[in-house]
Amino acid sequence: MSADSPGERRGFRAFFANALRPKKSRQVLRKGYSASTPDLRKDSLRPSTGTTITASDDVPPLPSLAPLEAHRLKYRALNAGKDTQLGENRDHTEILHAIGVGEIDPSDPYADGHIHDHRPPGEATIASLPPTLWTLISSYLNPADRASLAFTSKTLLSRLGPSPFDDLALPSNRDYRSDFLSTQDGHLPHHLLCFPCGIFHRRTQEGTEKLLPADKVNPLFNCPNLRNALLPPPRHRITHNRTLPFTFAQLTLRAHRFSPAHGIPVESLSRRWRRDGWSHHSRFLIHKNHLLMRVTSTCFADPGLPPSSQRMLLYSREDYWPYFSACAHWRDGELMNACKCALGHIPVPRETTALQGLEHRAKDVMARRIHNPNALTTLCGKCRPMRRCPECPSEYLIEVKLTEDRSDARALVFRHAIVVTRWCDLGDGRSPRLSREWAACEGLPDGEGYDSFQMLGKRSISGTFESMITDDTLPGQRIVSMNPKGKKLGEKGTGWY
């Protein structure tokens, strides 16, 4: 190596000269940039016309695009004018015209307002048919549907005559008269349909209706059949001495469907009360124009109860119904047996007297365990699952919880309590006959043939109710049939007691 080489220099100035010399890697490419500069992302460097590129041999070529990025660029280029959500071509001109015109698309299921019907009137077609034919058609309908057909237009009324309304006025057709009048709820906000009478009555407590216990007279209108035991008003038993008259279901659902002036808010039905050692909490919600109810009943239970004491704890001595909320089919199936099984899981405290206590303590020491009578109770596979009534939309959950006993304010005492929660669907509030859910919960003939597992599907009433309250989902809970064997003995059977 010659003396003029930079590597042979010695001294302070030579050190800095070598340190500040540009490295070889910085002299990779030297070109004259022009308008036709090639894309450096390609696999090889292809110089264009008028461009001089000098590449070093030790520099690898730039990699190509990643497959996902190349697919994204290709998809964006192909779908530049399409909607990313629907995949449809977006015509901005059509969108602006639709906003300017402001008409409602009849095919849009989410369009608000009334859809205008531009079809030609059909009175001429109706009038072209002879009255005898319309009479024959109406003979296949029940009195309520026949009156609804005559109420449709003046042409049909002239063809059918007043006979459909005369048939509704008969005492034997009182139920059909109520079915027909239930369709007029939206037009009469100051009146309420009375089902025992089959007519509309003027509301006497308009806007201030309040749900009271069953032993208190609470008329919402002046009805001549108020104290007629042969024509009782329809009502649903919530718990002992607590009922839900159908008129309150009407009021809440009318206020939800039409306007607040038609009824009362659903929040006004919720209550808390105590009776016969049980504490109850009821809550109501409206989901898809159906009234949902949840009733939670709690009662302290002593451990080791014999069968007779379990019956005294669960059943009312007045009507031999459970103290908690139950549907009309509670005697059929395993509901009460599951409650008695849950009571049997409450831990029993051990005897601590004399040698028996020493024996138990010695066994606990040898097994390295501590017996705690106030420990959390775990239920078995028989009483733990949620029960669903197969004949009506009702679901039951039985639990044993450790709850604070506040009867003595001076001491902090926790005791085991049985908790029975019932969720049910009380229907759409049109009438006790037309609402299949109400008729099924009451055990009426109109509710026969109701299959809750087919109607409800995989979504439970409890999951729907709790998701509307907490905006969250319940943990997975197995739901089994309350009557898996399908036996319908009612009071004739002895298994329920």
Automatic annotation (TrEMBL):
- Regions of compositional bias (Polar residues) in chain numbering: 46-55
Region (Disordered) residue ranges read 25-63, 476-497
Protein's name according to its UniProt entry: Iron superoxide dismutase A
Species assigned in the record = Aspergillus heteromorphus CBS 117.55
